[in-house]
Amino acid sequence: MANEIFMPKLSSTMAEGTVIEWFKEEGDTVEVGEPILEIMTDKINIEVESYNDGILLKKYFETDDVVPVNHVIGFIGEAGESVPDEAPGESSGADSDNGPEEAPSQSEQPEGHAKDSESKSELSGKRESMIGKVRATPAARAHARTNDVDIKQITGSGRNGRIHKADVVNHLSAQSKTPAKQAESVDAPVTEVTASQAATVQTEKLRGSRKVTADRMADSSATIPHVTLNFEVEMEPLIELRKDLNEKYKDVKVSFNDLFILIASKALVLHPDVNITFKDNEISYHEERNISLAVAVEKELFVPVVKNTEKMGLFGISKESRRLIEDTRSRKLSQEDMTGGTFTISNLGMYSITSFTPIINKPQAAILGIGATTEQPTLRDGVLHNRKIATLSLSFDHRVINGAPAAAFCDTVKKLTENPIELIL
């Protein structure tokens, strides 16, 4: 009897997942523990591994298709076995009410999905036999074969070291720049390159977490009446505080992100009408101050959440935000790390961006953008001084937050930034 592959439920709140990439085609041989496809939900990419040996008989969904949890997405079995032509819907063996809180792979699904003739220990042994095999996408393997490259010599940039086609391309490019290759090119005949040959255009389909982010940005921009308030803050006091703390406490590295998370948290305590989410025509007022932090990783954008900041000191926030940023960059974020945010901070201060209009992270109702610090001349008591100024931008949902409370929140953020001693009182 053919065995179902179904969309795993990764958390109690997960309702659907997106197919990112199939690593196998119909008719391909599949081994226990071997990744067969990659799925994504809430910007978390998870490889689904096989719990069965056999042939991939059927796959019902393609890249970027959104599938409800516990619905059958394919079958594995023996060659010639009969399977439905159309997706049969919810799996007969999956428990939709009691899905696992964490389901990193299909191999961790209930035993009922294994062949009856195989014991748990046998399956475990087969999974262990997969360890050491090169993890690579079919496109990467094909490109490596075409260019006669040993794929074992390539370092993968994907999740758990998976090798993508781009890794193979980069490897080939690096090889072509070695002295040996350069020496060969000296003796090679010069070939005239036409304009049509030189003007190559690369195209890339928007997919995976980038597509989800794009869809959410478009939805937020189209459905939320954004209003953005820009205000200047004098940064010198905050710069000095950070410098003093990092000099005094060598084992702690406080960042400006950490300071602004604390500032936002303190301000949200004083302005609870900003610490809200809005969904299905209902406003939720949150006692917890869970600050989402926008983190860019190559072409992708992730928003991990520093939770319960109202209960943390600056050093606690620093430790947790550093963990989240490191896990984001190494693609180790958990589902829990990405959910529950009530307010977002987006910091472009490290670039030459003086101000910008941040897009609200639904279902939250507000987001604070931080621009670069610049020196600006100003008169004080008839004397010209240089001040270090940053422009902050608060975008808010005008359906549920009015201009006056939003402005009051901005005023509190300004006062805390310019008088940071209040942060530790």
TrEMBL record:
TM segment ranges: none
EC number, as in UniProt: 2.3.1.-
Domain called Lipoyl-binding: residue spans: 2-77
Catalytic activity as recorded in UniProt: N(6)-[(R)-dihydrolipoyl]-L-lysyl-[protein] + acetyl-CoA = N(6)-[(R)-S(8)-acetyldihydrolipoyl]-L-lysyl-[protein] + CoA
Cofactors, names only: (R)-lipoate
GO CC entries: cytoplasm
Basic and acidic residues compositional bias, start-end: 110-130
Keyword terms, alphabetized: Acyltransferase, Lipoyl, Transferase
One Gene Ontology term of the molecular function aspect: lipoic acid binding
Residue stretches making up the Peripheral subunit-binding (PSBD) domain: 135-172
Annotated SUPFAM superfamilies: CoA-dependent acyltransferases, Peripheral subunit-binding domain of 2-oxo acid dehydrogenase complex, Single hybrid motif
Translocase is among the record's keywords: no
Disordered: annotated segments: 80-158
Top EC class, one word: transferase
Xref: InterPro entries: 2-oxoA_DH_lipoyl-BS, 2-oxoacid_DH_actylTfrase, 2-oxoacid_DH_E2_comp, Biotin_lipoyl, CAT-like_dom_sf, E3-bd_dom_sf, PSBD, Single_hybrid_motif
Physiological role: The pyruvate dehydrogenase complex catalyzes the overall conversion of pyruvate to acetyl-CoA and CO(2). It contains multiple copies of three enzymatic components: pyruvate dehydrogenase (E1), dihydrolipoamide acetyltransferase (E2) and lipoamide dehydrogenase (E3).
Family statement drawn from the similarity comment of this UniProt entry: Belongs to the 2-oxoacid dehydrogenase family.
PANTHER family, alphabetized: DIHYDROLIPOAMIDE ACETYLTRANSFERASE COMPONENT OF PYRUVATE DEHYDROGENASE COMPLEX, LIPOAMIDE ACYLTRANSFERASE COMPONENT OF BRANCHED-CHAIN ALPHA-KETO ACID DEHYDROGENASE COMPLEX, MITOCHONDRIAL
Subunit (UniProt): Forms a 24-polypeptide structural core with octahedral symmetry.
Protein name: Dihydrolipoamide acetyltransferase component of pyruvate dehydrogenase complex
Top-level taxonomy: Bacteria, Bacillati, Bacillota, Bacilli, Bacillales
